Amino acid sequence: MSEPDYNKQLLIAGTLFTLHNTEEAIGFSHFIFPAIIPLPIRPHNADAMIWSVGLITIIAWMLILWANTQTKRSNRKNLLLIFVSVFVANAFFPHILGTIVLQRYFPAVITSVILYLPYSFWILPKLYRSYTDRHQFFIIIIGGLSLAICLGIVLHFFINIISRFLVN
What we know:
Helix 1 runs parallel beside helix 3, helix 1 (6-29) packs antiparallel against helix 4 and helix 2 runs antiparallel to helix 3. The chain contains 5 helices and no strands. The protein has helices at residues 6-29, 46-69, 73-102, 109-130, 134-167.
């Protein structure tokens, strides 16, 4: 069985990511967290979320463009695996879980279910088979998810701090 064309798959993943983040930005611009839900940390304001989502999308496209210019195929394959891992984790938490807990629309749940999950469940087995070292497959997933979580947290807090300075 032949391996996927990682250049094309990265472009598809980037497009899915952009569509998802567009829904997320639009959704959070109209979303209000219910006051009755006890959250240890209150979510950022909508403007900070929209800026964060926008910057994360730009960073993702910069990584895709970088990977697609590299001669090593493994750079594209590893980045695609990281994207797909993030898609699956992000679909379940916070989008699907948020929808279940709130029992109403949570921003970006539609693209999580309609785009992220089918694409991820289609490409993940192909990616798994492409790694001869199965440990490397799981290490890249864990490392990529950890890096994405750290980047997301840092970016959200950075944008929130900047937006407070600009507003005040």
